[in-house]
Write a structure and sequence with these properties.
about 400 residues, alpha/beta, 8-stranded mixed beta sheet, globular
């Protein structure tokens, strides 16, 4: 029996990389700063299962510092280390694709930090082709903040809320009931065609519900993404006859390429429930890839250190449930796709090392050091599943 699981904690960085200055992120440290904030508040963060696997040790490898409140220095049960990104951006697509063996060596297009952010010819074409009455926002923004800022006007007028970020993305928000979910998806499909000349990676539909300035995004998010330009780990596993199960937004990130089955759920704990169910179902040669998105969208971008710490503790507390599902020959990788330091200015991602923690029956605990590419994670999984090696990356365990 040989199965593989990638558990991706979206935005869980371990400290600024040597090139962080190019992104304005020197000094960023998602894990370290969350741990410090919790410690100073008098409520140190407790992650006993992740710490035992080597999480704090991996952070020490990356930053040279031990996170405050974490005292374990030996006796780890996982193979642990950190990786820096070869891709030129700090966006979700680049991070995921590089983990899967495909570093992004080209420059995505980005919308400027101006108001308006989007070219007038783009918004004019979108208005004409989609038939919407107009747009609100048209700037860099946190999604939760901009929905509450313009939600009432959107409901009253039907104008769409459009915004961007440090990612190569156009996000479109609309109320599920007053505007309509399928109508929002249709507008996003139109927008995806229109942003192609700008080399934009994704258009994201951001449906929400609520009223009177109290709005919340729903689980009906949909990403329209540029597909990977070459085969990834997912393709290699699927081509070898293994099932590839994508939980959360994984299928959208890869534009469905290499995915056998996509599973959706609303929030980290619902995704964890889905992971447990899938672990009971998948067979030999399978890859299960889950993205725990709330770390990024609900806490990192919102600059909510306390919420981020609590979400980490919730996931840590449930890890033993997942561990009981593992069988002889299984390999689990815990990692991230970039940082999103909740103590950092603004609301964008941060250029950081990501954790690499491997565990499972038969995996020997050791220090893996620092990898020069996220692709070492995918190459390790490819080797474990005995599929065609990836074009990039080195086997670690």
């Amino acid at each position: 029996m040989a199965r593989a699981f990638i558990l991706l904690l979206d935005s869980f960085g371990l400290g600024a990389t040597p090139d962080a200055g190019l992104f304005g992120d020197v000094g960023a440290n998602t894990f370290g700063h969350i741990a410090r904030a919790a410690f100073v508040s008098g409520k140190p963060m407790r992650l006993p299962n992740l710490e035992q696997l080597g999480l704090a040790a991996a952070a020490h490898v990356a930053s040279g510092e031990w996170a405050e409140g974490f005292s374990l220095r030996c006796g780890f049960t996982g193979a642990y280390g950190a990786a820096r990104e070869r891709s030129t951006g700090k966006d979700s697509q680049s991070g995921h694709w590089e983990i899967a063996g495909l570093p992004v060596d080209f420059e995505w297009g980005y919308f400027p930090r101006t108001t308006p952010s989007f070219p007038p010819e783009l918004t004019a074409a979108l208005k004409e082709q989609s038939g919407v009455s107009g747009f609100l926002g048209n700037c860099h923004a946190s999604g939760t903040e901009i929905i509450n800022r313009f939600g009432n006007e959107h409901v009253a007028t039907g104008k769409l809320i459009i915004y961007t970020s440090g990612d190569s993305v156009l996000q479109i928000a609309a109320h599920e009931r007053t505007f309509g979910l399928e109508r929002l998806y249709a507008v996003c499909r139109c927008a995806f065609t229109l942003v192609a000349p700008y080399n934009i990676g994704r258009v994201i539909a951001r449906p929400f519900l609520g009223e009177n300035g109290n709005y919340r995004r729903t689980a009906n998010r949909r990403d329209y993404a540029v597909p990977p330009p070459a085969p990834t780990l997912l393709d290699h596993v699927k081509d070898a006859g293994g099932e590839v199960v994508a939980l959360g937004k994984i299928s959208e990130i890869f534009a469905g390429q290499g995915v056998s089955r996509s599973v959706k759920a609303d929030g980290n704990m619902a995704l964890f429930d889905a992971l447990l169910k899938v672990a009971d179902e998948v067979g030999d040669g399978s890859l299960t890839f889950v993205n725990f998105v709330e770390f990024d969208q609900s806490f990192g971008h919102r600059r909510d250190s306390a919420g981020y710490a609590n979400a980490l503790q919730e996931l840590d507390a449930r890890l033993p449930e997942f561990m009981t599902k593992l069988k002889a020959g299984d390999l689990v990788a815990i990692t991230a796709d970039h940082g999103c330091d909740p103590t950092w200015p603004g609301s964008d991602h941060t250029r950081e090392y990501i954790p690499m923690i491997f565990f499972g029956p038969g995996i020997q605990a050791r220090d893996l050091g620092i990898s020069d590419s996220f692709s070492d994670i995918g190459q390790t999984v490819a080797h474990h599943l005995d599929v065609t090696p990836l074009a990039h990356g080195s086997k670690l365990v």
